[in-house]
Amino acid sequence: MPHPTAAAPGRAPEPPDSSGPLLTVRGVTKSFSGVHALRGVDFTLEPGSIHALVGENGAGKSTFIKVLTGVHAADSGEVRFLGEPVAFTRPADAQNAGISTIYQEINLVPLLTVAQNIYLGREPRRFGLVDTRGLNRQAAALVERLGIDVDVRAELGSLGLGVQQMVALARAVSIDARVVIMDEPTSSLEVREVETLFGVARTLAGSGVGLVFVSHRLDELWALCDTVTVLRDGRVVHTGAMAALDRVGLVSLMLGRDASDVRAAGTTDFGESHAHGDAPLLSVSGVEVPNRLHGVGLTARPGEVVGLGGLLGSGRSETLKAIYGDLSTTSADVEIQGQRVRPGSVSRALRAGIALLSEDRKAEGIIPEMSVRDNIALAVLPRMSRGGLVSDARIDALVEVFMRRLKIKASSPQQKVRELSGGNQQKVLLARWLATEPKVFLLDEPTRGIDVGAKREVQGLIDELAGQGLAVVLVSSEMDELVEGSDRVVVLHDGAVSGELDGDRLTSADLLTALAGGIPSDAGTAAGAERSDRG
Amino acid sequence: MSTVSATPQAAGTTVSTRRLHMVQRVQRQGALVVLVLLCAVASFQFDSFASGPNVRSIGLQASFLAVIALGMTFVIFTGGIDLSVGSVFALGGVLAAWASQYGTVAAVLVPLAVCGAIGLVQGLVIARGRLAPFIVTLAGLLFARGLLLFISDEGSTVYKVPADSGFRELAQGSLLGVGYPIWMVVILYGIGALVLHRTSYGPTVLAIGGQEDAADLMGLPVVSTKVVTYVASSLLAGFAGVLIASYTSSGVPIIGVGTELQAISAVVLGGTLLAGGAGTVFGTLVGVLLLQVIANVINQVGSLNSNWQDMVSGAILLAVVVLQRYLAGTARR
Amino acid sequence: MAEQTATAAQPAPAAPPAEPHTRRRVDGAWFRRNGVYLGLVVLVVVNLVITPHFASTGSLRLQLVQVAPIIVVSLGMAMVIGTGGIDLSVGAVMAMTAAVIPLYIGYGTFGAIAAGLIAGLLSGALAGSVISRVGVQPIIATLAIMVGLRGLANITGGQIKSIRDPGFRELGSGDVLGIPWVVLVAVVVTLVVWGLMTRTTFGRQLVAIGGNARASTLAGLPVKRVLTTVYVLSGLLAALAGALLVARNQASDPTRLGQLVELTAITAVVVGGTPLTGGQVRVLGTVAGALLMQLITFTLVAHNITDSVAQMVQAVIVILAVYAQVGTRMRRRSRA
Question: Is B254 on the interface with C (CB under 8 A)?
Answer without folding.
Answer: no
